[in-house]
Every structure is written in structure tokens, then in C-alpha cells.
Write a structure and sequence with these properties.
This protein is mainly beta and about 800 residues long. The protein contains four helices and 48 strands. The protein has a 22-stranded antiparallel barrel. It has a five-stranded mixed beta sheet with strand order 8-14-15-12-13. Its main location: membrane. It is found in: Cell outer membrane. It comes from Sphingobacterium oryzagri. Keywords: Cell outer membrane, Ion transport, Iron, Iron transport, Membrane, Receptor, Signal, TonB box, Transmembrane, Transmembrane beta strand, Transport.
């Protein structure tokens, strides 16, 4: 089906724009911050598993309370994160009190009440997800808001999905999100047709809604301390300043709990893969005011490709101090050390035929352009201090300070020409860099009303100082090798060769932003979200020696970022929404000698969608239709007087439709999605021709993962799962529209058995051993190669 039949007829597009413009004109703009509140929900049943109806559920010394429905379910929104005394009572039952922890990730309780007037079973569970059901995310609007009422396309993958998939990096879970894929073995991803990959500051990755990516672009982000992963589709400048036009990914990390818990996980797999981790949490004091969590991980693996070896060490201690029910302080530290022979994945060879076509199956999987003498060493450290205080139930304050430092020592061989007679010329990159990010965020939230209108207002400010204090880079020629019979003995001679290109500089950028947001509630069915943000960038690149052969860049950019959204619930469990989003990104180059300064890159999105909660809120469905325009992309525009001149062009347009379904029904868990996308250039320039397809942007992607857990029987605890991922053909290079990667379909499967505190799991990936390429970077010589058939065996043990 062509997209224009769904979205882009003139009449429909005109109506689409008129609707959004009406929202903008009717409501003045206001913006975003993050609320430190959570959702408490659960189910209360009898010993016979019958629902307890109309039971009173209250949190002591607060106004929070509700009653269970006909299914024994209860739900309390907007609870400040912390420890509470839960009181449950009902006629014919003995009232019971117990401590419960409410976290920003949500708390779910399964409670059983005995009809013999005995107390509720002692259960305190924090941040437990209901299977695959996403529940909520406060990242999209930075306030407590169910996904059903969130006027944006948001998808959340829970810890249970990560466990069932045995996914240990973002690359391994990317295909589970609708319309997202990993382009190669590095930190490059496609979302809504846009490549999210930034050598300067990969800001499409957030931690608990705060900027400051722990990992460099050459790495696959690790998930040792991640509770859940969220994808917010579309530009998110109103919330997070600079961000990829296709979306941002938010990692929700594991927090200290007031209950003692210890677990260990061990995994073995193909290509000598081995992994071990431990997770310990609990109170450090009898009063349970001081809580801790310690996560330690180690993994090492080789590859189906020659000379690959990678080792990761990960440590993440954290502390939480609960001053009162309304005041808390959390400190989280992350340290990740990586050593690899080939940290920067340059992909596998692709043969160019005499007629200009490409043979993607000519060269064997195991070949690599890199040398056994290559290496990459990274040390990544972050520390986040978060203070939360509730003055009362309506006024709350949060202050967050995040510090990140990344160091890289790296040597790598790359292709420097085309393949001829099964041999290729190479270049050598020798690089040392020291990068940092200092992020300060402060915001206050206030709930009030004016007449019939309810307001949830957030006002905040950000300060981000980021860049690098060292960027020592040299590009040199290296030896030519035979692809089938490489001889690396001459590689050492290139280490001391003169540099053809050289950088030796530092770059400091200061970002100051302020924002205000108002969620207007007309009634329970109609809400309008209005935001306005102002950002100012001021940066400078300074040469550190005469070896830096480039002029330093200066950066000054500022602008307003509006957002307007409307959500309407025609039925209790069905919503429709419309959203206008915008962001701007400063240019990575503003050199005067190249024609700078240039206007900022700007992304503008219009989106319409509908969401539904089905089967007693256990299954979530979402449909969205969107258009994104990305303007002021820089391209070469040489003149006789200036061969280095650049110019900003109209840019690209991405249109699409997305459909997703996920949740848990009885013993079944499901994640399913389909995405159609059309991402093309909208004008002709040296960048390409109007209508050219953008690189790494397939028209169609689909995914399915289904798990069945055997109920009460002799096989209780047994789980069986299977899945499939489909990606249609995709252009690998914008400048060569004939360079098209073939479509691919990949099948995965898993089986696990849980008994008591033990869980044993077996996962098999790419069951059909499909040979496929995932994406490209900058040439037709190599491409990202998908993993062939491989497996993992894991065992986990809950110590207590």
C-alpha cells in the first residue's frame, strides 16, 4: 500500500495542517520538565483467587486512596516516589498495614487476602512490571501520565523483555521497537528513517530523562543497570534540547530498594561469549532511610569475523537517602571499561560488479578490513545526583546534576578506495580523545485549577557544558592487502608515516535552556499540552598545536522550540491525539572559510494517532501517522574562489505509519509492530536529487515476539518463545541510489524454565542462518553485516 493513500493526498494533508495550526493559534505556548512521581497499581484476590471488590486501598498520611474494581484491580496515579505505609481494608476482612515502595518506573502488587480474617501475605515489590505491558512513561511529558493519555508515539520495553531476549546491548533490543533498527555493530540506529549517530555528542541517548550518554558512538550501549528502555519517536527538542529528528532513546536505570535482594546471572554463547553479573540491593540502616544498590558485570566475546576480541567491565553503585516521605537524595555512579581489537566496526566487504551492480554474497562472512594490531580502549564514567522534594501534594521540586567523562585510545584501519582484483587500499586512523558533559537540570511542578480548567505546570532550566579537552587525531596511508589472503606484516610501517589529515584541538560548548509546560485538563476526556522552550548555544573549537590543520569553529545559535498536543478519550480505554513537535540542532561546522555561519538544522513533525488499552488494560495498541521535515542540512557547494564552500539546503522529508501491539494476556506475552516510512530529499543539490531515498531508511519494517508460559501443571515454569524481524530493501548510500541492500527476514526462538529461585534459559538467533546486511555508513565497499546463527545459554539465581 502506498503511503499517500493513507496520509498524503492534498486534501488530507491540508486538513492535517489546519488542525495543527488551529491548536497553535488557539492556545498560547508554554514547556517541559520531569516529575518524580510514580504509579501504584495491583490486584487483590482471596485465597481462591477470586477478586476482592470495593476494598479500600490507602497510603497513610497522604490523600492517595482508591477502591478495587470488579476484578480486584486498583490504580493510584501521581504518587511521589518513596516509601509509604499501605493500608488495605474491607468488610469481613482484617485491616492490614505494610510498607510499599513507589518508584518512578511504577509499582505493581499482587496481594492475597484470606477470608479467615488473616492478614495480607507479606509482599513488597518495587518497579515490578506486568509482563510486557508498558503501563506508563513519564519521559515523554516529564510528568506522571499513562501512555494512553500521552500525546506522542512512545514505546517502552520492560526488564522482562530484556531477560526473555537475553539482550545485553541496545543493538540487540533495537529490532524489538517498532520502526527502529541497528545499522551496524556501533552506536548507529535508524528511527523514523533518520540515522541517530553523532560523533560529537550522541544526545539521542538519555539516562532517566537527562542528557549525557555514558557510551561513545563506537560502542554498543550496555544494559547491565537498565530497568527498561523507552523510545520517544520524533523530534524532542522541547524536552531535551538537541536530539535526533527520528526520536530519542531513554534508559531507565535500576534504583535502590527498601527490600533486600541479591541475584547473579551467568551466560555462555557462540564465539566464546561469556558474561557474568551480580545485582545487590536493600537497606543499609534499620530505619530503611539509607538504601543501596550495587551492579557489577563482566563480559568477553570473540566473533564470527577474524581477529575480533572484546571485553567489558561494568560497575554501577548507587545510594538513596529518604529524609522524609517527601524528600529524597539519590547518587548513581556508572563506570564502564572496554577493550577491543576492533572497537569501531567497519563492516564486511561488498563486491562491485563490472556493470555497477553489487554482489552482497561474494565475500565470506569472516573477512574483515581491520588489522590484528588495531585496538580500542575506552573508559566511561558518569555520576548523577538527584534531589527531590515535595513541599505539598501540589508543589514539587527536582534538581539533577549529571557528569560524564569518556576517554578513547584507538587505532583502526579503514578502506581508502575501491576494491580491485580482490584487493584494497587502506588508511590508518590513530586517535586519542577525552570528552565530557556537565548537565544541571532544575524544575518545579505545580498542580492547580482555574475555574473548570485543571493545570499541571512545570517550569525548569537546563545548563549543559559539553565537548572535549583533547582531540588528537591523525589519518595516514597504510598498506594495500589482498582480501582473501591478507598480509598484515607491513602495517607497523604506517604507524610512523606522516599524517595526511590531522586534528589537535579542544571544543567547549555551553547550552543554556529554559522551559515552561502546562497540561490543561478540560475534563477527564480532553487534555491539551502546551510547551515552549528557549535554548542558547555558545561554543568554540580551539587548536592546541600547529599540527591542527583546520581553523577553529565558533558556534552561536539560539531559538524557540514550541510544542502543542491534544488528546481526547472518546471511550475510557481509547484515545486519539494530535501533536506538533519541533527541535533545532546547531551545525557541527560553522567555519567562515566554508561559508559559515549557517542556519541551524530544524526538524518539524506533525503526528496524528490513536491508542487503546484492551483486555482489562493488559494489552496496548497504538496507531500513528506522521510527517517530519528536516531543513538546513549542509552540503558541498564549491565555487571557483572557494573549493571548500558549503551551503544549507532544504533538507529531507520523512512520512510514515506505525502500528504496534504489546502486552500480557494470561499466559501469553506479545510484542508486534509494523512501520512504513518514506524518507526522501525534497530538493536537488550536490547532496542528491529530489526524491532520492535517504540512506539506511527501509520502506517497511515488521517485528513479532510471542512468549507462552505453561500454567499450573507438571511443566509449570516452562516458557516457550519465538519471533521474526523483517526489513525491506534499503539504500546504503545517498549518493548512489543503485547501492541497495536486499531485504531480509530473521527468525529467533527461546525456551526457559523457572523453578524456585532458579531460571535457566536458551536463546537461538537467526535460526535460518540468513546472510544479510543491516546498513552502511559512507561507502559502497563495506556494510554492516548481521550475525549468522548463534545461541546463548543463561542461568540466573535469586539469592534472596
Amino acid at each position: 500500500m502506498k503511503l499517500k493513500t493513507l496520509l498524503t493526498t492534498d486534501s488530507k494533508m491540508n486538513y492535517y495542517h489546519i488542525l495543527i495550526l488551529f491548536i497553535l493559534i488557539s492556545f498560547p505556548g508554554v514547556v517541559a520538565a520531569q516529575s518524580n512521581t510514580g504509579l501504584l497499581e495491583g490486584r487483590i484476590v482471596t485465597v481462591n483467587n477470586e477478586p476482592v471488590i470495593d476494598a479500600s486501598v490507602k497510603l497513610a498520611n497522604s490523600h492517595f486512596g482508591t477502591k478495587t474494581d470488579a476484578n480486584g484491580m486498583f490504580r493510584i496515579n501521581g504518587v511521589s516516589a518513596g516509601t509509604y505505609l499501605l493500608i488495605v481494608s474491607n468488610v469481613g476482612y482484617t485491616a492490614h498495614k505494610q510498607n510499599v515502595i513507589v518508584t518512578t518506573q511504577g509499582t505493581y502488587l499482587d496481594l492475597q487476602l484470606s477470608e479467615s480474617r488473616s492478614a495480607l501475605r507479606e509482599i513488597t515489590i518495587a518497579a515490578k512490571h506486568r509482563g510486557y505491558h508498558p503501563g506508563k512513561s513519564n519521559t515523554a511529558t516529564r510528568m506522571e501520565m499513562p501512555l494512553l493519555e500521552t500525546p506522542q508515539s512512545v514505546q517502552a520495553i520492560s526488564a522482562e523483555v530484556l531477560k526473555d531476549r537475553q539482550a545485553f546491548t541496545l543493538n540487540e533490543i533495537a529490532g524489538t521497537f517498532t520502526g527502529m533498527k541497528a545499522n551496524n555493530g556501533n552506536g548507529s540506529f535508524t528511527m523514523r528513517g533518520f540515522t541517530a549517530y553523532s560523533p560529537n555528542d550522541a544526545s539521542f541517548l538519555l539516562y532517566n530523562g537527562i542528557r549525557g550518554n555514558l557510551f561513545l558512538w563506537s560502542q554498543q550501549p550496555l544494559l547491565y543497570n537498565v530497568e527498561s528502555v523507552e523510545l520517544l519517536r520524533g523530534p524532542s527538542g522541547a524536552l531535551f534540547s538537541e536530539g535526533a529528528p527520528g526520536g530519542v532513546v531513554n534508559f531507565v536505570t535500576k534504583k535502590p530498594l527498601a527490600i533486600s535482594h541479591m541475584s547473579v546471572d551467568l551466560s555462555l554463547g557462540s564465539w566464546n561469549f561469556r558474561r557474568a553479573s551480580a545485582d545487590l540491593t536493600g537497606p543499609l540502616t534499620k530505619s530503611k532511610k539509607l538504601l543501596y544498590r550495587a551492579i557489577i558485570g563482566y563480559d568477553r566475546s570473540e566473533s564470527f569475523r577474524d581477529y575480533q576480541d572484546k571485553e567489558n567491565i561494568f560497575v554501577a553503585p548507587s545510594l538513596t537517602y529518604l529524609f522524609t516521605e517527601r524528600t529524597s537524595l539519590n547518587l548513581e555512579v556508572n563506570y564502564a571499561r572496554s577493550k577491543a581489537v576492533h572497537q569501531y566496526d567497519n563492516g564486511s566487504y561488498i563486491k562491485t560488479n563490472a556493470d555497477g551492480s553489487f554482489d552482497f554474497n561474494y565475500y565470506p562472512n569472516n573477512l574483515t578490513i581491520q588489522s590484528p594490531s588495531d585496538y580500542g580502549k575506552t573508559n566511561n564514567t558518569s555520576a548523577t545526583l538527584t534531589f527531590n522534594h515535595a513541599f505539598n501534594d501540589n508543589l514539587k521540586l527536582a534538581v539533577v546534576q549529571r557528569v560524564v567523562r569518556n576517554t578513547l585510545d584507538y587505532r583502526n584501519h579503514i578502506p581508502s578506495g575501491r576494491i580491485a582484483n580482490d584487493s584494497i587500499s587502506r588508511a590508518l586512523q590513530d586517535w586519542e580523545t577525552d570528552r565530557f558533559s556537565l548537565q544541571t537540570t532544575a524544575y518545579a511542578s505545580y498542580s492547580t485549577s482555574t475555574g473548570f480548567l485543571g493545570h499541571e505546570i512545570i517550569v525548569g532550566a537546563d545548563y549543559n557544558r559539553y565537548g572535549w579537552t583533547k582531540n588528537d587525531y591523525q589519518y595516514k596511508t597504510s598498506s594495500r592487502i589482498s582480501i582473501f589472503n591478507p598480509d598484515y606484516r607491513h602495517d607497523a610501517a604506517s604507524f610512523d608515516a606522516p599524517a595526511l589529515e590531522s586534528d589537535d584541538n579542544k571544543r567547549i560548548t555551553n547550552l543554556v535552556g529554559a522551559y515552561v509546560q502546562d497540561l490543561l485538563s478540560f475534563n477527564e476526556q480532553l487534555k491539551v499540552l502546551l510547551s515552549l522552550r528557549y535554548d542558547n548555544y555558545d561554543g568554540k573549537e580551539t587548536p592546541l598545536s600547529a599540527r591542527d590543520n583546520k581553523q577553529g569553529d565558533a558556534l552561536q545559535a539560539s531559538g524557540w522550540i514550541p510544542r502543542a498536543s491534544l488528546v481526547y478519550l472518546p471511550l475510557q480505554h481509547v484515545s486519539v491525539y494530535a501533536t506538533f513537535l519541533r527541535s533545532f540542532n546547531p551545525q557541527t561546522s560553522n567555519n567562515v572559510l566554508s561559508g559559515g555561519p549557517f542556519p541551524t538544522r530544524q526538524a518539524t513533525q506533525y503526528e496524528l494517532g490513536s491508542k487503546a488499552e484492551l483486555f482489562n488494560n493488559r494489552l496496548s495498541a497504538m496507531l500513528s501517522v506522521y510527517q517530519i521535515k528536516y531543513a538546513n542540512i549542509l552540503t558541498a557547494a564549491p565555487t571557483e574562489d572557494n573549493s571548500h564552500r558549503q551551503a544549507a539546503i532544504d533538507g529531507t522529508r520523512s512520512r510514515g505509519v506505525e502500528l504496534s501491539l504489546m502486552g500480557s494476556i494470561d499466559n501469553f506475552n506479545i510484542i508486534a509492530g509494523y512501520a512504513y516510512n518514506e524518507h526522501v530529499l525534497i530538493s536537488t543539490s550536490t547532496y542528491g536529487k529530489k526524491g532520492d531515498r535517504f540512506a539506511n531508511a527501509p520502506h517497511n519494517m515488521a517485528n513479532l515476539w510471542l512468549k507462552y508460559t505453561v500454567p499450573n501443571s507438571a511443566l509449570k515454569g516452562l516458557g516457550i518463545a519465538g519471533g521474526v524481524r523483517y526489513v525491506s530493501d534499503q539504500v546504503g548510500l545517498l549518493s548512489n541510489q543503485n547501492f541497495v541492500f536486499p531485504e531480509y527476514t530473521v527468525f529467533d526462538a527461546a525456551i526457559n524454565y523457572q523453578r524456585g529461585r532458579y531460571n535457566v534459559q536458551f536463546n537461538a538467533y537467526n535460526l535460518a542462518d540468513k546472510h544479510y546486511f543491516t546498513g552502511s555508513r559512507s561507502s559502497t565497499t563495506t556494510g554492516g553485516l548481521g550475525d549468522p546463527f548463534n545461541f546463548r545459554v543463561g542461568i540466573s539465581y535469586q539469592i534472596k
